Please model this.
Amino acid sequence: MITHLLFKRVYPCFLLLLLPFASLAFAEEEFKPEERYKHYSEPNITTGDKAINFGLVYTAQWIGYGATQYEIIEDHGSFKNWRENIFKPHFDKDHLNYNLSKHTLVGQYYYLFYRARGYGKQSAFQWSFLSSLAFEFTIESLTERPSYQDMYQTPVLGSIVGMGAEKLSLYLHSLQTTPTTILGYLFNPMTILPRNYSHYRIAWVPMRNQNHAGLGLQMGVAL
Amino acid sequence: MKKFWMTLALMMFAAPAAAQEVLEETSFTAAHWTNGLHMSAGLGMNLGYFDTDLIRENLGPGLNIQTDVGYYFGNIVALEVAGNVMLTRVSSTMIWDTMMTFGVRARLPDWAGPEKSAPFFRLLGGRGPSVFIFKGEKPAEYDIGEGERTQIEGDVFGAAYGLFQDGREGTTWYLQLQYLTHIYRKVEVIDDVNGVPEAIFSRRVSDSGAMHSLSLTFGVLLF
Model:
């Protein structure tokens, strides 16, 4: 409930309040170039890393869809839909809030994730587009037909908002104070992720005790 | 609607931020269109005329959100997918028009535009829905059923004239005047049932009803 309220009311209001500060991020005279934080794009991301990154987003999509659409999946989901809907894309009938707001915000996180993993703007957009297609055709098709609006608007509008969020987040991080660093993480939560070109490494480790089995997240530093 | 306005505000801040770094990944300028994938986005205003059996009415001015993703080649032409979202309020009704089009953008000779600009011409064709979202009592002329909103889907055709111009720090901006006609084919009355939009009434449109719109958009190349 706390999470729900946070995301529905507090977090959006918080972001809105901060918007005026966004203009500061674009004021070139505020910073000498060498003092500005910049996104670092990795020129050579391996095919294996690309597959892992896409897989991570895909897994998150399944988890997110299952968690937020549980009742709709129960009421309308079926494997028959899953098989047949993929051949019947259409213009959906969703409300403005879904098509223009929620999908844009989700698309923003696709974009920011790929950027955080070292992708350039173009390739982050291209992979966001692929992730969006994967969601429409292999996940959401469980309950509904793929939507032309979502296929286009999720990665396109999401990337546009993502570009702004990334810039603002870098500016806030570059101020190097605790409050602005926290804000930097809020505007671009993906900056908290270890980069695939950094010396930090994460791994999922199977764990088990007497009663439970699960996966543990292990973090380490390459020496 | 609050979520939508927040998303829109984020986009408005995002575009100039992203534009500052266009040259990091491409060397696209108004004079030299580089081969490859490019994305642009803009905001503007539109005027419309709604011409159907039920309503004949001037619309606007309203807000126009234009996004284009295109593959440019030969420094002269681009094949594009574009999304044009128009939002117009008429008394207590919000008209939300989404037009998704395929099109071609061709460079015009320099004399067809102002100095230091690269004029272009576009032809577009596609499809999309117009959604009428009612607040309070429905106006009699829009009332064709008891649903929460009415969605009219149809074919889209249009043309645009515009110009690219270079700004500071490698940014490329555009101004575009676009005419679109949205020829309606199918009307559906939508109700949200347990969070899922369902058409409770549907019929073909046989009177060649259409919405004609003229939009002026100011935007920027994002990559």
Remarks:
- The mean pLDDT of chain B is 85.
- Residues 19 and 222 of chain B are 5 Å apart (CA to CA).
- The two ends of chain B are 29 Å apart (CA to CA).
- Chain B touches chain A through 53 residues (CB under 8 Å).
